């Protein structure tokens, strides 16, 4: 008998730098707790319990019955979707976009945010990203073989990345800057003058500005978050990402878009053409209908988030946990009242049945804070605050 040599199969080296995705083990723990009879309140993921717009549901139903809508979307997608995006961007931000050259449908904004690194960053290239921050900035960079330069977002600098502090040797090698305001998780907002500094930094260093505007429509008390394209010259350097997940409670539908200069949009489209074949056309039809229903439907949804924000801030403060009402997003970013964020979140889940996001799970710069998502009705949020107070 001959023996056949078997070599070990190994994971790629870049994979070993990957952190565990936040909350990855929570669904299983939640199921176990619920099976034990625990009343779990989940404020972990930014995945609201609210309904999507009826107009989107009706459009999906209608389109799903049409045979031609079952065909491959490719990167072109549904022309009516591109047109609806372009119309909405003009009305909302006064930004003019060619729907066929400056807009790209995405299978949720996350995939576009992660994939764009393949077009612009490789070995030897640096990407500047916020810490804490949405993990696809890091994931996209590492998958593309780039080198992340994480900048802590701290209260002392209003949770902004201070571009003047980026070392020149890093700036010279920077190919992508990721920014996200209104910010997840810190809830910070950025003045237009700061966004102009970011555009200037990217111009001087030959970097693309990936501007993640997923929370542009969840803002309160009269605040209207800007588009990066409201900054002069931004179209030369920036790609802006939008999502239906938060504005329209359509997290599971997986639909968003990228907008930007024709070259950048063509580059992202080219990457994607090797990875996906576009989002299901009826979902694109539904998203176009959601944009059409914006004026009638979105303000009421924002009011629901505002009422939740106010209920949770008041309840936390009454419980002795310091919390500030954010101007935007569907989160609160709260200083941890006792110990480090990860053990605090673990205790919140195991002792009180409340799921929260420990700041450190979104990057070392998030230590000292935890995030609550406003994904439950006011009464449940008050109950969560009462339970969290038991941990202090
Ligand atoms: C900052 C930020 N960007 C983008 C997204 C992605 O949204 P989606 O991929 O569902 O469009 C999220 C979702 O949590 C987010 O928090």
Task: Give a quick set of tags describing it.
single chain, 392 residues, alpha/beta, 3-stranded antiparallel β-sheet, 12 helices, globular, binds pyridoxal-5'-phosphate
Q: What is the element string, with H for helices and E for strands?
A: HEHHEHEHEHEHEEEHHHEHEEEH
Shape descriptor reads globular
Number of strands: 12
The helix-and-strand class reads alpha/beta
In the predicted model, the low-confidence regions spanning at least 5 consecutive residues are none
Task: Itemize the secondary structure elements and their pairings.
Blueprint: H1 26-35, E1 41-42, H2 54-64, H3 79-93, E2 103-106, H4 109-120, E3 126-131, H5 136-143, E4 147-152, H6 168-173, E5 174-179, H7 192-205, E6 208-212, E7 238-243, E8 256-260, H8 262-273, H9 281-292, H10 294-318, E9 331-335, H11 341-352, E10 354-355, E11 357-358, E12 369-373, H12 378-389
Parallel strand pairs: 1-10, 3-4, 3-5, 5-6, 6-7
Antiparallel strand pairs: 2-8, 7-8, 9-12, 11-12
Helix pairs in contact: 2-9, 3-9, 4-5, 4-8, 10-12
Pyridoxal-5'-phosphate (PLP) binds at residues 46, 108-110, 134, 180, 184, 212, 214, 243, 245, 251, 256.
Describe this structure in words.
This protein is of the alpha/beta class. Helices cover 38% and strands 14% of the residues. The protein is built from 12 helices and 12 strands. The chain has a 7-stranded mixed sheet, with helices on both faces. The protein has a 3-stranded antiparallel sheet with strand order 9-12-11. α7 links the parallel β5 and β6. α2 packs antiparallel against α9, α3 packs parallel to α9 and α4 crosses α8. Bound molecules: pyridoxal-5'-phosphate. Pyridoxal-5'-phosphate (PLP) binds next to α4.
